């Protein structure tokens, strides 16, 4: 995005004066889906596109919010910072983060003018919401001198999602947006928050994101239903082995206890989570060993499990993945993000990328009637001030 144009838009909205500019990225998860809220491992990376957050403190008793991506502007008084707006209002995402500062002892004596612009496609499953939350956290923390560390801001973003958007998400998306590093993926234990930055060295291979343009909506209830089903699996197993989350079980332990889960649907949900944690660990090892083919096979197995056991893919995602796997030079392809629409991620040999985009795009449109979009992923840094 052109920063001069963004600052021009800010002046048009709020008048002359200096503003500060912050940025936080979207993310793509290479493998490890729906494991984060189960205390498992994930392997995301921050992207080079995300959310730009322009802010100028004022002497007024309110915050003003405007987004170049949304039609609705809002003004929120300082005495209303801890109360969500109407359900579905986009301002709940930044407001929910600001509320976390208040709830943790930070005091706002004055408000600010805020302009937001993002180039993460909304509904693409690339964490536009986490990107907005972390951009807010970084900007507010720096502008008001609150002195919170980056991990605290990550947690504020997750809390915002829970309390103001009603999505019981894990911490992966916010963690990737806040803690990402250029040319590295994050091997994150979502239980302990211990993590390792793993260099992504894909010799002659590109990460290609395919946006189905079938938008997902995590607040539709399906996501929270999966959370509840995983809890039901824990409740079924815990009388026989003391666990508090599915991530406490190894695959071997799960296989020996799976007969304790009588509900077939709950059994399949648990089987996905525990096998996905195992796949994620294997995939990280494969990347470190330079075995990209093994990584690709694990990506394929991940999608199959998300399709068959977790049931979060759907016609559009499956159609794009099926088309991708037919193209020569594709090493692996899977859905990424929460599912129910959104995007795919594929490892594609560099010389096959153009053919991939052409053939997958054509077959996807033929099958679904929708037009997909494709991006070659560049791995960037986490949230920070840029000007």
Automatic annotation (TrEMBL):
GO terms for biological process: galactose metabolic process. Gene3D superfamilies: 3.30.230.10, GHMP kinase, C-terminal domain. Substrate binds at residues 33-36, 223. Its main location: cytoplasm. Pathway: Carbohydrate metabolism; galactose metabolism. ATP binds at residues 67, 123-129. The active site is at 173 (proton acceptor). It is found in: Cytoplasm. Its EC number is 2.7.1.6. The record marks 27 as: Transition state stabilizer. One of its GO terms (cellular component) is cytosol. InterPro entries: Galactokinase (IPR000705), Galactokinase_bac (IPR022963), Galactokinase_CS (IPR019741), GalKase_N (IPR019539), GHMP_kinase_C_dom (IPR013750), GHMP_kinase_C_sf (IPR036554), GHMP_kinase_N_dom (IPR006204), GHMP_knse_ATP-bd_CS (IPR006203). Catalyzes the transfer of the gamma-phosphate of ATP to D-galactose to form alpha-D-galactose-1-phosphate (Gal-1-P). Belongs to the GHMP kinase family. GalK subfamily. This is Galactokinase. It comes from Ancylomarina longa.
């Amino acid at each position: 995005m052109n920063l001069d144009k963004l600052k021009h838009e800010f002046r048009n909205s709020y008048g002359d004066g200096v503003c500060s500019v912050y940025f936080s990225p979207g993310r793509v998860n290479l493998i490890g889906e729906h494991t984060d809220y189960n205390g498992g491992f994930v392997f995301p990376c921050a992207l080079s596109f995300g959310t730009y957050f322009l802010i100028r403190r004022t002497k007024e008793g309110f915050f003003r919010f405007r987004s170049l991506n949304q039609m609705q502007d809002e003004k929120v008084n300082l005495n209303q910072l801890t109360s969500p707006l109407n359900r579905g209002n986009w301002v709940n995402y930044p407001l929910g983060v600001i509320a976390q500062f208040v709830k943790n002892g930070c005091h706002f004596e004055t408000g600010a003018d805020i302009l937001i612009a993002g180039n993460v496609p909304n509904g693409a499953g690339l964490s536009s919401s986490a990107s907005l939350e972390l951009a807010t956290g970084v900007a507010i923390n720096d502008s008001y001198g609150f002195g919170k560390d980056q991990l605290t801001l990550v947690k504020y973003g997750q809390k915002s999602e829970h309390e103001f958007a009603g999505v019981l998400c894990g911490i992966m998306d916010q963690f990737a947006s806040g803690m990402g590093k250029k040319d590295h993926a994050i091997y994150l234990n979502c239980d302990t928050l211990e993590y390792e930055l793993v260099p992504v060295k894909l010799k002659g291979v590109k990460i290609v994101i395919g946006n189905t343009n079938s938008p997902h909506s995590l607040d539709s209830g399906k996501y929270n239903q999966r959370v509840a089903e995983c809890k039901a699996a824990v409740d079924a197993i815990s009388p026989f082995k003391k666990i508090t989350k599915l991530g406490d079980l190894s695959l071997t332990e799960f296989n020996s206890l799976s007969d304790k889960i009588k509900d077939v649907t709950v059994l399949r949900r648990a089987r996905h989570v525990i096998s996905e944690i195992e796949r994620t660990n294997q995939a990280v090892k494969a990347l470190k060993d330079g075995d990209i083919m093994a990584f690709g096979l694990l990506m394929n197995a991940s999608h199959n499990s998300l399709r068959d056991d977790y049931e979060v893919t759907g016609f559009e995602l499956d159609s794009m993945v099926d088309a991708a796997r037919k193209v020569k030079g594709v090493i692996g392809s899977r859905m990424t993000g929460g599912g129910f629409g959104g995007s795919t991620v594929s490892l594609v040999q560099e010389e096959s990328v153009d053919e991939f985009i052409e053939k997958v795009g054509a077959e996807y449109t033929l099958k679904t009637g929708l037009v997909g979009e494709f991006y070659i992923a560049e791995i960037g840094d986490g949230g920070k001030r840029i000007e």
